[in-house]
Design brief:
34% of the residues lie in helices and 20% in strands. By secondary structure, the chain is an alpha+beta fold.
Length: 154
């Protein structure tokens, strides 16, 4: 068992591992195999989130250049394997601003989360079709088109 534990620690992406594929001199007990498999859903969610954080998102330059936090976030069908489908805006943009491609930049979702707005992390796993607006300093809700976006700077 210690050999198995050491291998899991040495393998930084253990959450993508299959317990049957691990190479160890020790045979894991049925209890250990059952515990590993019971956590497979959490491992899968972690793996999927790590993959998503590396994918691109469209980001308004009002967030980048003017210091606004995300006020509106929408997830559409990704264009390719590198695209997350996420679009992040401050909520202060008008349509003319958004129509100008020079006002949008592509960034990894992880950069948006870690460097620009940590509040989005709880929502980035949402599926295609999600539209959220900021309703308070750190909360988002589904956009039902009946509320104003709460805008705030970093």
């Amino acid at each position: 068992i210690n050999s198995l534990a050491k291998q899991l620690q040495a393998y930084p992406h253990f959450y993508v591992a299959d317990i049957e594929a691990l190479n160890t001199d020790d045979t894991p007990t049925p209890d250990i195999v059952a515990e590993f498999r019971s956590r497979q859903g959490a491992y899968t969610a972690m793996r999927d989130r790590r993959i998503l954080l590396d994918k691109r998102a469209m980001v308004s330059k009002k967030i980048l250049d003017e210091g606004w936090k995300v006020g509106y976030m929408e997830r559409v069908e990704p264009h390719d394997a590198e695209d997350s489908g996420w679009f992040f805006a401050s909520g202060t943009e008008d349509q003319g601003y958004l129509d100008d491609c020079h006002n949008i930049q592509l960034l990894p979702v992880g950069v948006v989360w870690q460097q620009l707005d940590r509040d989005i992390f709880a929502y980035i796993d949402r599926p295609v079709g999600t539209r959220l607006i900021r309703t308070s300093p750190d909360q988002f809700e589904v956009d039902r088109l009946d509320r104003e976006i709460y805008t705030v700077k970093r």
